[in-house]
């Protein structure tokens, strides 16, 4: 793999390179790449919100894992576009959220987490473009940071609506163990993606 292209941009905002952009021969700031990534990513976010895992008394979905993996795969622009498009679809009334839809839903108890998706997609995607996605350890760290950002936004908003104890008991504690598992799985998916790309689609050589 040619790492020199990415290293030339290490002192800039980002390398404009991600796993998916590398495979399709585009850069992450390419307009068509962003458009297609946004559409496909928003669909994946919608589908993942409907997949519930009964690991805790509070339903757990695969959505955060899909968001984080998507951000690592696409880079921050494509991931941000997908996240904003997904939230727009939900606000417009499409049934893309786990429960409910509409603008009012965005300002409900789970609204903080949804807006946290925006910040997490930017941050995790940015770190991916700085080559964090090429190390499983750094990928784990990036996904952990993204999850913490979602937690902070979600708990802060829930505490504003209710109180801090309610926010922690219902908005944090039930999700810690499932999210650790999802981060581990997501890190393995990203590592496997690069492994498969290098083995079968090593177009840079």
SSE map:
Layout: H1 4-7, H2 19-24, H3 31-49, E1 52-53, E2 60-61, H4 63-74, H5 76-91, H6 103-106, H7 111-129, H8 136-161, H9 164-171, H10 176-200
Antiparallel strand pairs: 1-2
Helix pairs in contact: 3-4, 3-5, 4-5, 4-7, 4-8, 4-10, 5-7, 7-8, 8-9, 8-10
Task: Give the % helix.
Answer: 55-70%
- SS-based structural class? mainly alpha
Shape: globular
Uncertain segments: 1-11
Intertermini distance: 6 Å
Q: Widest sheet: strand order?
A: 1-2
If helices are DSSP runs of H or I spanning 4 or more residues, what is the number of helices?
A: 10
Instruction: Summarize the biggest pleated sheet.
Output: 2 strands, antiparallel
**Rg, Å, rounded:** 17 Å
- SSE pattern: HHHEEHHHHHHH
Strand content: under 5%
The mean pLDDT is: 89
Strand elements, count: 2
Keywords:
single chain, globular, 205 residues
Textual characterization of the structure:
- The structure is a single chain.
- By secondary structure, the protein is mainly α.
- Helix content is 68%, strand content 2%.
- It has a two-stranded antiparallel ribbon.
- It is globular and about 50 Å long.
- Mean pLDDT is 89; it is low at 1-11.
Task: Give the structure's gist in a few sentences.
This protein is 68% helix and 2% strand. It is mainly alpha-helical and 205 residues long.
């Amino acid at each position: 793999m040619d790492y020199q292209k990415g290293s030339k941009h290490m002192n800039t905002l980002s390398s404009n390179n991600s796993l998916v952009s590398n495979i399709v021969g585009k850069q992450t700031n390419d307009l068509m790449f962003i458009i297609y990534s946004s559409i496909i990513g928003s669909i994946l976010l919608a589908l993942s919100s409907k997949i519930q895992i009964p690991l805790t008394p509070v339903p757990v979905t695969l959505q955060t894992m899909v968001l984080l993996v998507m951000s690592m795969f696409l880079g921050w622009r494509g991931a941000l576009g997908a996240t904003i498009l997904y939230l727009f679809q939900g606000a417009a009334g499409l049934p893309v959220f786990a429960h409910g839809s509409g603008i009012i839903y965005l300002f409900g108890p789970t609204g903080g987490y949804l807006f946290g998706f925006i910040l997490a997609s930017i941050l995790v995607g940015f770190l991916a473009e700085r080559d964090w996605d090429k190390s499983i350890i750094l990928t784990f760290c990036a996904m952990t940071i993204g999850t913490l950002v979602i937690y902070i936004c979600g708990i802060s908003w829930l505490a504003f609506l209710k109180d801090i104890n309610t926010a922690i008991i219902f908005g944090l504690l039930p999700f810690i163990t499932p999210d650790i598992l999802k981060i581990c799985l997501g890190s393995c998916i990203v590592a496997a993606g690069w492994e498969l790309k290098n083995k079968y689609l090593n177009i840079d050589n």
